[in-house]
């Protein structure tokens, strides 16, 4: 953490400890190297003891082990600067100060041979390792499962959304594609919420509900069923596009086109909804 020692940032951490704040986790990459020298040639303070004195729970962990966790915790991860780096002769070049803050090709390490040593392909350096992909996928599944337990969650979140689109099931994917169109051609920032169970969602805290469906934003719902199924979620000023009848029989693609359940049509419906909302 580059700002670990700066007084302003330290002041914030002192306050966090004093106030007993929870759900506050910080990771300190303790690799013992800085730009010019090993770190022990400048400061001599004991970082772990300092944070303990501020009321933090402190864990010193293997910085490469993602399974070690805690709450209101400073994790001091013991790592090696430039782990896996080798020079042109294939000799290890880990832990050197030259590896701090500049491209590996500007140090005594050899870029291509380092990638080979790490099991990567120099011709395709941005490949994602299978274990990394598996880890990220499992983490995503875990987060989705946790969100699903609350009845609803944001599938897509924008920094400054103009509207929230709401659906569940397969209609969510249609909204995601429509959101891409809205942001690309309409310069409209979009949140997309999947509300799996309105009853379970409404049993959550008001703070959580508002974080998913902000009251100040217009809301547009899309369902292949009756609009009434989403009207309670979009609110009185929102709009739901759905099906008011039943009994038609044809291939799904034909019915989607006929009833307007396409990305292009939903795109237009959302634009109309926003126009109406802005005029009211």
Characterise this structure.
The chain is an alpha/beta fold and 280 residues long. It has ten helices and eight strands. A five-stranded mixed β-sheet has the order 4-6-5-7-8, sandwiched between helices. Helix 5 crosses helix 10. The longest helix has 19 residues. The chain is elongated and about 75 Å long. It starts with 6 loop residues before the first helix and ends with a helix.
Structural class: alpha/beta
Low-confidence stretches: none
Q: Characterize the overall form.
A: elongated
Major sheet? 5 strands, mixed
What is the residue-averaged pLDDT?
A: 86
Helical segment tally? 10
Sketch the topology as an H/E string, one letter per element: HEHEEHHEEHEHHEHEHH
Terminus-to-terminus distance: 48 Å
Strand order, largest beta sheet: 4-6-5-7-8
Radius of gyration: 26 Å
Percent range of helical residues: 25-40%
The counted number of beta strands is: 8
Short overview:
The chain is of the alpha/beta class and 280 residues long. The chain is 38% helix and 15% strand. It has a five-stranded mixed β-sheet with strand order 4-6-5-7-8, with helices on both faces. The chain has a three-stranded parallel β-sheet with strand order 1-3-2, covered by helices on one side.
Task: Compile the SSE list and pairings.
Layout: H1 7-19, E1 25-30, H2 47-53, E2 57-62, E3 73-78, H3 111-117, H4 130-148, E4 152-156, E5 163-167, H5 171-185, E6 190-195, H6 198-202, H7 206-212, E7 219-222, H8 228-234, E8 239-241, H9 252-259, H10 263-279
Parallel strand pairs: 1-3, 2-3, 5-6, 5-7, 7-8
Antiparallel strand pairs: 4-6
Helix pairs in contact: 5-10
